[in-house]
Amino acid sequence: MVMSMEESISQQLLGQSPSKVEKISVASAQSDGGMIKGLSADLVSLSHLDLKDAGITSLKGLPKLPKLRSLNLEGNLIKDGEDLEWVAENCPALENLVLSANPITDLTKLEALNKLAKLTSLQLTGSEIAKVDGYEAKVFALLPSLTTVDGKKKDVEEVEDDDDEAEEEDEESDDDAESDGEEGNPGLQALLGGEDLSDDDEDFGGEEGGSDDDEEDDDDDDEDEETGDDATPKKADVQPEGGKGIKRKAEDDDAE
Fold it and tell me: How much is the pLDDT for 121?
């Protein structure tokens, strides 16, 4: 006789405090009319739950399980997007979800799982979705938090290549901006009002030439001063009017 899901759960909780139970497996135990029974909100520490092949058609009996990280629903009859929304609302810490061999036909129904920010692994093998060529890439695009779909890892190298290309484009944009800045930068000639710098050079040269002329004039002045000094008669050579010297005049006075 096949044990019911509720009986299986009761046996596993026997003698234990529900708040301390971390793992429950009711694989192959049958649900009651496709509903989940036997689980309660007291299972606050539950991290792993295995409900494989239990004939489940609805997940609305799943209680709030704040620490549940892994949920196995393989081989059940889940096909409604509302059931996945229920999982997303009640299992916020979920990281690994197995939906293999469930009759989910519409890929968009998986969008409800976007609320699971920590979900990194999803298994869909044997489902209708997995029959579509390239479904993994579509699932990755639909659920960005995923790193693995049916054992296939997200193409990290492709993501890195895209980042490298983006960086190269940014560098090229920076180079173009610098080039445009150089072309648009007015030169010194433009800042001087369009004057020809060569004229300024000539002016500077003229000033230098003027300095040389000034130096020559100074030299001439010095020569003139020297010449003037030489032309000035010495005191001993000065003769008074009348052509006689002072000594000769005194001798004539004595003779008289």
Answer: 98
